[in-house]
Amino acid sequence: MKNEILKALPNTNDILTITDWVNKNESKILYLINNASCKKWFSKYHNPTSFLYPCVCSTRIKACVIIEIYFKLKSILEINQNELLYKKAIDEYITTTSTFNIGEWLFKYSQFEELLSFSNKVIVIYDNAKWSKIIFPLREIDFTYALILKSIFEKINYNETSQ
Question: Range of 48's domain?
């Protein structure tokens, strides 16, 4: 099954290819969602901010794995689209570190704390019983500011918990 899934993925990991793949495959994904036995995908598609519970099937069907990859790649695109906003937050942090209140800065950019769970690879488990997974690496250059901001948040969280 892994080879079939890999054939369905974008053929390179640059952001333009991922964008193209997500856009070109949206109607196919919607078809898979509408015909999936698991209705969590339908809910996620129509309510993108809803929490998505992890799959607990011991062996997953191909369509389910491809749908999950689609949603993960789509969220990766959203992170990429925020690169300029991340840069603004970083610039503010760097230029005013000695004169500003860290709590106010954290509050101002709290919507970006989701970056703490960001990874520069997409990992999808396709066989829970064997923990078999597909790893789709992303180019760090497409997420430069996301990764820098993540490291700032990690540093702040580390400093707060070590005091």
Answer: 2-161
